[in-house]
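=== How it folds ===
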Amino acid sequence: RLGWGCRSQGLLLWITERPCGAPSTVDLMGRPVYNPGRNLPGSARPQRTTARGVGELEPVAYARKAVAVASDKQASDILLLDIRKVGTFADFFVIMTAETQRHMESLSHDLVDVLTTSGASLHHQEGTAAGGWLLLDFGDVIVHLFAPGAREYYQLEGRWSKAKQVVRIQ
């Protein structure tokens, strides 16, 4: 059986049954990709079918780099959440507050620059600094940049209260 789905920048094609019986996900070019809705047999958590390239870091290292950049660039209330036990679409959330629109744009630019230079791929970006919220989707690590009012309004920490707090910098 074939199905179509959408993840970040493009359409995905997934095959729900392979001849060996194990579920698999491939993109339109036939490359294996992660499909958060499918578990491999005998696994408590979906397994990634993408291989890390030579020199690429683990997701926690990218998340910690994002925290370091945010701290260096004076973001406030920086929070790193491990969401692996409560969500299947990513491993880590990095949530931070930027005081002004220009500050948010600068943080976004620096985060993308540092993480992509380190080997991460920016899959998708949503929101605008003018709107008070930016999301940077690096696959296993999702970075949320909020204006103070938007952060208070959305209460992301409360919605993900069962996630493990790895780092909090106030």
Q: What stands out?
A: The chain has four helices and nine strands.
